[in-house]
Design brief:
Pfam families: Peptidase_C48. The protein has 148 residues and is an alpha+beta fold. 39% of the residues lie in helices and 22% in strands. Helix 2 (95-108) packs across helix 4 (128-147).
């Protein structure tokens, strides 16, 4: 597992979340697996406009296989929760940057209280400066990788 896609709360050794950015075919969403709560959270920059049934099936099957292999027994299916309070994009092209910003904000929050923060419906979006920040970080990372 790529350590960049896992977040741990140092105060709780059992808390482990997995970030899974996923492209539904022209649109990015963020899926977060929370092992502690047996929940799968979805953050969609457009709201709940896209059907995620196929993705749910794939991910549920993966979770079942993981639980059977690691834990030796199946567990109940995870509960899927749409975070309606996630910031929304106002255009048709910035979803990938929103997904990167979601991950950055969750990782920066040392309390990992994202469950409460994004559950309630809000009307905010990211500022251009906040999106430019992740654009610059991505560009820097890619350039370092290319020329390292």
């Amino acid at each position: 597992m790529d350590p960049a896609r896992i977040a741990h709360d140092p105060r709780d050794g059992n808390l482990c979340i997995f970030f899974i950015p996923y492209n539904l075919g022209g649109h990015w969403i963020l899926t977060i697996i929370d092992e502690d709560k047996d929940n799968v959270y979805v953050m969609d920059p457009l709201g709940a406009r896209h059907s995620q049934d196929a993705w749910k099936t794939v991910l549920n099957n993966g979770i079942k296989a993981f639980n059977a292999q690691i834990r030796g027994r199946p567990r109940k299916l995870s509960t899927w929760i749409m975070f309606s309070g996630a910031p929304k994009q106002s255009d048709g092209k910035s979803c990938g940057y929103f997904v990167m910003r979601y991950m950055k904000d969750i990782c920066k929050d040392s309390s990992l209280k994202f469950r409460n923060k994004y559950r309630a419906r809000r009307k905010d979006t990211y500022t251009q400066m906040e999106l430019d920040e992740v654009r610059e970080e991505l560009a820097t990372h890619v350039l370092e990788w290319l020329f390292d």
